[in-house]
Amino acid sequence: MQNRRVLLKSRPTGVAQAENFSLDTAPVPAIADGEMLVRNHFLSVEPAMRGWIADAANYSAPVPLGSVMRALCAGTVIESRAPGFSPGDPVTGWFGWQDYATVAPSAVVRKIAEADLPLSASLGILGINGATAHTALSMIGQPKQGETVVVSTAAGAVGSAAGQIANIHGCRTIGITSSAAKQRLCVEQFGYEAAIDYRREDVDARLAELCPDGIDIYYDNTAGAISDAVMRHLALRSRVIVCGTAAIQNWVDWPLGPRVERHLLVRRARMEGFVIFDHMDRYEDAVAQLAAWIREGRLTYLEDILDGIEACPDALAGLYRGENFGKRLIRLV
């Protein structure tokens, strides 16, 4: 049996392009005792992949050149010599951009229990994106009814979930996004009170108009000029959740910009970074709550699905070009 794979060919400068990856075919390795063979159905595309393949310091070791691109995937166990796993089990885990993965149980993030919901959701709203939105908002944001919450990349997989969860907690939500179409999506589908198109509008002026009493929680997925504008509108004892840095193209040279310390001091604000992998003990509870909200009709999501493993090499670059509406996935079967 042959296995199509996407390999990391070279390290990018900035955002990875298609030429940084290569496609190949190799035999599927036989499983040993304690291992299982997983057939991937969906491959995830994450903004964080940019950091995973960079030479610059990150929260995880760089993907080695010539190896299968690191990725979370959803699939089905088709053969198992691992205790606790049987053929037919739906699973998500670190299976990589490939058709098949021979892995130990340590590569599995979870067995999928939500049989009534689409398998693809386990990589987005019921995966690290939804769990990140829920856990970061509850741990760092600590939303209270009536507070104002601003979310950057508000129509993305994490941002759209964060905005809706803030609404569930009784907050008023303002989204920042990249196009008129995504503005409409934020308001009409994800329940934001208003949305700002940072490419066409003055973010600072719009925030002053929409948040006259300040911003209580800022869910930051971008850094850069967008976040610089938000900082000027923080409310007293506000909380800033740093979840992504999508606006910064290159971290090799330390990027310089406006200083935030005075804003944090005067507003007695708190700013904290968040990586979901530090909080996997909360993962199952987060997924259970998110699934319940989906079933109740209180939480919705969009998926941007590309077909075929051949779509992988350009998928990350497309994400940073803003092509996707919702969670970007690659469908294999």
From TrEMBL:
CDD domains the record matches: PGDH (cd05288)
Molecular function terms from GO: oxidoreductase activity, acting on the CH-CH group of donors, NAD or NADP as acceptor
Annotated ranges, domain Enoyl reductase (ER): 16-330
SUPFAM superfamilies: GroES-like, NAD(P)-binding Rossmann-fold domains
Keywords: Oxidoreductase
Top-level taxon: Bacteria
SMART domains: PKS_ER (SM00829)
InterPro entries: ADH-like_C, ADH_N_2, ER, GroES-like_sf, MDR_fam, NAD(P)-bd_dom_sf
Protein's name according to its UniProt entry: Enoyl reductase (ER) domain-containing protein
Originating organism: Sphingosinicella soli
